[in-house]
């Protein structure tokens, strides 16, 4: 896990905030390349109903679906990631875990046609301002993020000005 240099696995396992979604945050659900999706489904066919195939200009990917998990109309009701084990955290292996999950609370976003790494300010462990350790980590993994987002552009979300930009990836 890339973020484990600045965020302990125990802190994440005990919190799990990033793996639970209110309806307004469904846009943040992770995207899976077809190779990961195929491995996941090969191991557990029952997970198939939790994915939606999304077509892009020249390819496709899979987006997790949680809409059917909600049981009320309460906008604050939460639904957990289907791979979240309440006692052990994420059940995905590192190969299939989406980059968005590996680097949360970092976000890969498009701001004015530039890919940037932004900081999600609601991580209970890291607070509202990116620390020097987070900034240093971004510099260390920036090239990995650039390569991955070039190969899988569907992970790049539209920029939201609630998230401070830490670094520009391309351009």
- Residue stretches low in confidence (pLDDT < 50, at least 5 long) are none
User: Could you give a short account of the major beta sheet?
Assistant: 4 strands, mixed
Radius of gyration: 16 Å
Average of per-residue pLDDT values: 89
Number of helices: 4
Proportion in β-strands: 15-25%
Sum up the overall morphology in one term: globular
Helical fraction equals: 10-25%
Question: Would you kindly provide a written description of the structure presented here, covering whatever features stand out?
Answer:
By secondary structure, the protein is an alpha+beta fold. It contains four helices and eleven strands. The chain has helices at residues 9-15, 34-43, 99-103, 132-151, and strands at 20-22, 31-32, 51-55, 60-64, 78-80, 84-85, 89-90, 106-111, 114-119, 157-158, 165-168. The strands form four sheets. Strands 10-8-9-11 form a four-stranded mixed sheet, with helices on one face. A three-stranded antiparallel sheet has the order 2-4-3. It has a two-stranded antiparallel ribbon with strand order 1-5. Strand 6 (84-85) and strand 7 form a beta hairpin. The longest helix is centred in the C-terminal third of the chain and has 20 residues, at 132-151. It is globular. It starts with 8 loop residues before the first helix and ends with a strand.
């Amino acid at each position: 896990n890339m973020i484990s240099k600045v965020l302990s696995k125990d802190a994440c396992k005990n919190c799990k905030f990033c793996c639970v979604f209110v309806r307004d945050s469904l846009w943040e659900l992770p995207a899976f390349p077809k190779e990961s999706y195929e491995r996941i489904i090969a191991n557990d066919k029952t997970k198939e109903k939790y994915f939606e195939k999304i077509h892009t200009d020249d390819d496709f990917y899979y987006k997790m679906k949680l809409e059917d998990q909600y049981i009320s109309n309460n906008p604050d009701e939460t639904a957990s990631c289907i791979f979240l084990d309440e006692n052990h955290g994420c059940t995905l292996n590192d190969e299939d875990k989406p980059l968005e999950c590996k680097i949360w609370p970092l976000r890969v976003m498009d701001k004015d046609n530039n890919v940037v790494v932004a900081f999600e300010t609601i991580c209970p462990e890291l607070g509202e301002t990116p620390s020097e350790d987070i900034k240093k980590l971004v510099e260390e993994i920036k090239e990995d993020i650039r390569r991955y987002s070039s190969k899988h552009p569907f992970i790049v979300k539209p920029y939201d000005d609630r998230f401070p930009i830490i670094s520009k990836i391309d351009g």
